[in-house]
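From the pipeline queue, job 12 of 40. The input is one protein chain; the requested action is below.

Action: predict structure.
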Amino acid sequence: MKEVKAGVIGDLKGIVDKFAKILDSGFDMLKNWGADVEELEELPNGSLSRKFKTAAGNTVQVIWKPIDEDISELDIDDNTLVNLEIKTNKGNKKYNRVKLKDITKLRDEAMKELLGEVVDVKSSRKMSVTLQRISSSKCDNINLTAISANYSASDVLADLNAIVSDDTFVEQIQDEPVSFSIEDDGDSFDIQPIEEFSTESCYTDILKYAIELWTDVVALKWNIEGEFVDNLTQLLNDIEWTINGDINTLAEWCYEEVGRVPHPLNLLRQGGGCNTEVSSSEDGYKIIQTKLRCYLDALELYYCNFSHDKQRILDEMIRRSHRYADYTIDKHLSKPKIYPC
């Protein structure tokens, strides 16, 4: 029997959030397909697992373990190698030395082979956009004037940048605003013209990002320890106070436009918190910087849906969060550290 190193589980707790971030979109598509997906789970042997029940009632467990047991959060990316096992109520499949980015594809192939079920990925990642060409003497710009999406703001921004880089697509956009439905089918984008769509969901979407950031900030503040944490604690206090103000403003707007504000716990269940068990204040700075940038992506993505008077307030929210993420934290991380003798 192989020895289980004492630190394996503790080390994995520091990288769960990074794994979840990379793989979440693949599991989100299962939810949209109709599957009942459980939360990410750590197993005693150091593996990570996620279970779900398909719409047809079959059970599936996806289990993966990094090949490098000494891997750190900063080492994890789409190409990180893991050993993968797919367990179902009708059989199992094992794969060695799999890249993280290939887990979703191999999972779906195993489900088709073992269960005869096919995941309809085409309906999993959708957005509706209204675009307008703004012409000037120097160049033409494509402006986003309205948007609704069902997946992460950061991924939506990346997809939009890829889409508007396609010259053939851009030729369809003229001086008058035109709306499109865009679905990611896994290999390409299915883009269809539409008449109009609702942007009402942006009020709860952006509120979710603010509440998630606030809870991550206070969770980190409660758990950070060791040397050189005083400056980080003060920064976290400042961000907590700032984001709390944003939350109240966004909640008021949500009530005005939608007629109700969802319970914060219901919003938090749609996303995952950050890792709060950090080994140094430097790790804490990096975690909060990442979370702030996710929040900024949401503010900037949905900005176009708001009236001009609300945009002026959003401008201030964006300015403050940019200052924290791209000045205060960057300044700390770039300066040399002086340690006591």
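Job complete. Strands lie at 36-37, 41-42, 48-53, 59-66, 81-88, 91-99, 125-135, 140-149, 178-184, 189-194.
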